[in-house]
């Protein structure tokens, strides 16, 4: 498949039909869209939505001709978007980028593509780029792809959670739920995810219990339609590779048996998502039990969480569980020293910044009699994590503790480096 093939042919055909009818771009665009958008479509720089294409076809009196041209292209683009989404769901970011690039050398005017590109940027920790992509997708979805609105709103809310802006995140999660209900969209998993997130931000708000979320955990896991991790990853990768091979092959065939596997894979991924969602709720319940010093209940929830983690845990959920184990050790086990070491060990497996980990480390320093050199190691790790997350207020408090620790050991150079780092960061915010 040649890059740009999808968008160039439909743009060229609209231009040919317009010139045949002696129309200018302004005449074609009148009361439909801007002349600039018509120019971009004809140049292959924008992809018209189905609704816009219908209006253009009616204006050109060429509904049948454009339907014939776009039928194969719509199928190709739709399949490409679906494959890219599956690639991202399975962590295959490079493959997702390759598939999206086949949609044209310029980014098409399709909300789903910008949404997927936002997810790629978020995966690569390019949060500002992800934010811009999601907002572009949001603008396009409002006009042409309303079914995507809840997913996009939820993703923007997730970014605000990463930046510790819980008020905005909660607003966006509530709006996600409202839009889903207002548009009467079937968003079972998404709405349940939002309910769990809202319950963590607003402890007094309990998640709504949908028919699916009321399913007994043990029964749901037993009925899960895919093998346990890591067998599922191998199985899913094989199916995805088959679909990618069919996508890359010439001539393209939307009827290929390889593409028919995608619906099967998507259903299994949905089931996996339900387990992952249940895991979030289980971890939250286990943490609450530990904080309430209920040993028996916390052990029950942690056993269930470990089982769910093996089936469908994401890397972030693995980190959350590791921190949960550290909290358990602090409360019921061998004490804070083991908890701290277990938490520091997580940096080797999960180097990405995570707010909860930094919070644990600082709290232990403030509440427990931790001495050097462990105290300095803990505070440095927390400070770097907060700096990555741009949590300036938390950085300032942690730096005070760290400077106090460094002064006790006469580490003058380290103090100067720390102060210089704070000043550099302060100049950027």
What do these coordinates show?
- This protein has 429 residues and is mainly alpha-helical.
- It is 75% helix and 0% strand.
- It folds into two domains: 5-209, Tetratricopeptide repeat domain (Serine Threonine Protein Phosphatase 5, Tetratricopeptide repeat); 314-428.
- The two termini are 45 Å apart.
- It contains 21 helices and no strands.
- The longest helix is centred in the middle third of the chain and has 35 residues, at 257-291.
- The chain has helices at 5-20, 25-29, 35-42, 50-60, 63-89, 93-101, 111-123, 127-143, 149-162, 166-182, 188-201, 217-222, 231-248, 257-291, 295-312, 315-331, 336-349, 355-367, 374-388, 392-408, 412-428.
- Helix 6 packs antiparallel against helix 7 (111-123), helix 16 runs antiparallel to helix 17 (336-349) and helix 20 (392-408) packs antiparallel against helix 21 (412-428).
- The model is unreliable at 1-8 and 205-229 (pLDDT under 50).
Concise overview:
This protein has 429 residues and is mostly helical.
**Overall pLDDT level:** 76
Overall body shape: elongated
The biggest sheet, with number of strands, parallel, antiparallel or mixed sense and barrel status, is: none
Total discrete domains: 2
Which CATH architecture of the largest domain?
Alpha Horseshoe
Named CATH topology of the largest domain = Serine Threonine Protein Phosphatase 5, Tetratricopeptide repeat
Individual helix count: 21
Pfam families: HTH_3
Domain HTH cro/C1-type: 14-66
Keywords: DNA-binding
GO molecular function, one term: DNA binding
